[in-house]
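Issue 218. Parser rejects a valid record. Input:
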Amino acid sequence: MKVTMIGHSTVLVETSGMRILTDPYFGSRGNLAFARSAPPARNREELKDVDLVLVSHNHWDHTDRRFFRSLAAQVPMIAPRAAVWITRCQGAKNVTGLGNWEERQFGPVRITAVPALHLALPCGFVIEAEGKRVYFAGDTYYGRFMTEIGARFKPDLALMPVTTFRIPMTMGESGAARAVKALSPKIVIPIHLGIVPRSPLLRTKDSPEGFSRRMQRVGVGTRMTVLREGASLDC
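Output the parser choked on:
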């Protein structure tokens, strides 16, 4: 299994002959409030032949209308059940909605939707293949459901948001450290690091390094790996 950071929360998971893309967002400029800190490692054209797309929620930095429209109709997309209509309005063609704890099999890969807590209609996903389990949290605050995710799946890898700005739309250092303690994954990769507030007043000192120190203080033995745009991890 190979995991490649495309940028922000867009991650390519290659396993069992399949290419799975999470929360595709290829915009290079951000919006009026947030700037993109680095361009995505690959463009829309390079990834439109993926086998499966996972959409955790429909905020602007997790969905890409141009990419959705470019996908062939046979490429399946999984979204939260309550957000299927929004995903279709954004240009997606072949969308399946899953409720919490529901699963679907795609050849050798099993996808399970898991709870998430966010200012949207969200979910997370667990990807199971090759005897490995990857938890993609999408955007979520810490929640007690993470203890159940950890107990059910015992994830080998967690893709965990760590925000670095005020008015957080998902977990910062502290929440992410609590989440990792509840999940007990072997490895955690911070995500949601691809945009920064344009106003310095909205930036914090939170960082992946600070997140790692917090994990150590709460006694978590999980290994943290930071993947910059274009970097990969074999797990």
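Fixed in the parser; the record now loads. The chain has a mean pLDDT of 95.
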